[in-house]
Amino acid sequence: MAAKSDYYDILGVSKGASQQEIKAAYRKQALEWHPDRHKDDKESAEKRFKEINEAYQVLSDAEKRKAYDQFGHAAFSPGGMPGGFGQAGRPFTQTGRQGPFTYTYTTSGGPYAGFDFGDPFEIFSQFFGGGSPFRGAQRKPRYSITIDFMEAINGVEKEVEIDGKKRKIKIPAGIYEGSRINFNDFILSVNIRPHKIFERDGADIFVRLAIPFSLAALGGEIEVPTIDGDVKIRIKKGTRSGTMIRLRGKGAPRLRGRGKGDQYVRVLVAVPQKLTREQRKIIEKMKKRDL
User: What pLDDT is attached to residue 249?
Assistant: First the structure.
């Protein structure tokens, strides 16, 4: 998963913005990115719309905003902030209304953790009164679950407890951060823990690969991690730091559609911290030639 965007950047406001400025920015962004206004690319619009809702939910609440300013996104992840919103293992359920949204925060100390920001399509009835001009929203209990990065890639079956009853649910391969699964009697939001190596944007995977200076200069082969295991790639001689290499079909399964995305490897050339006398002489010669 790619790193989350800054909430202030999502709404297009500064960190010192007033609540009135945040609300105005949110209203503008939410109207612009409502998925029913982007039927040609509804999936991207839904993703953007969810980010806007999430940013407003945090920045419109003084306590949550303070936690975010201090700890960033970690404040709302399991174990992310000491004694704060993201602390794992403590059963807690809270429902209510904040700004233009109803929200539910549920954690049982087990698989449930994190915020479910309610139904964002209620924005229009809250802002303008009456029903949404786009569609009505079916009200169901909402929960959220946090799964590992590779569980999201490969799909997973989880046992959860709903209203005191244990149930098995299937999460499809390729599920992405913020996806909502609509079951018969409840809605489940999916949050994904970040991976130590991989980052993700949709079906594409990104990884940084540090290579020695000698390999960058002379070229050769090196192994690079992918979600399916290590593979060998060819480094061209004279490769510069920051070069991006594309591995077709090595990304995540496409949630809607066939095949997989791609993996992008960003090559970072490691500069040696210590040189032998011979190495220093060679670099000095190279320096003179460059001059």
Answer: 94
- pLDDT above 50 (res 98): no
- Token readout for 253 is 């399964």
Contact in structure between 197 and 207 (CB atoms under 8 Å): yes
CB 80 within 8 A of CB 64: no
Over 80: is that where the pLDDT of 4 sits? Answer: no
Q: Which residue in 166, 25, 178, 205 sits closest to 115, CA to CA? A: 178
C-alpha to C-alpha distance for 10 and 223, rounded to whole angstroms:
36
Is the distance from CB of 193 to CB of 148 less than 8 angstroms?
Answer: yes
Residue of 136, 157, 137 whose CA lies nearest to 147: 157
Q: Which residues contact residue 181 at a Cβ distance below 8 angstroms, ignoring those fewer than 6 apart?
A: 169, 171, 175, 187, 188, 190
Alpha-carbon span 125 to 198, nearest angstrom:
40
Q: Is 98 helix (H, G, I), strand (E, B) or coil?
A: strand
Instruction: Report CA-CA distances (Å) from 103 to 94, 106, 139, 263.
Output: 8, 10, 12, 36
Q: How far is CA 204 from CA 125, 167, 174, in A?
A: 36, 32, 10
**Calpha distance 236→253 (Å, rounded):** 29
C-beta of residue 156 within 8 angstroms of C-beta of residue 149: no
Q: Residue 176 is which amino acid?
A: Y
Structure tokens at 11: 């709404």
d(CA 79, CA 8): 23
> What's the whole-model pTM score?
0.52
Give how far the C-alpha of residue 239 lies from the chain's centroid of Cα atoms, to the nearest Å. Answer: 30
Q: Are strands 263-270 and 92-98 parallel, antiparallel or unpaired?
A: unpaired
User: What domains lie within the chain, and their CATH numbers?
Assistant: 7-192 (1.10.287.110), 199-273 (2.60.260.20)
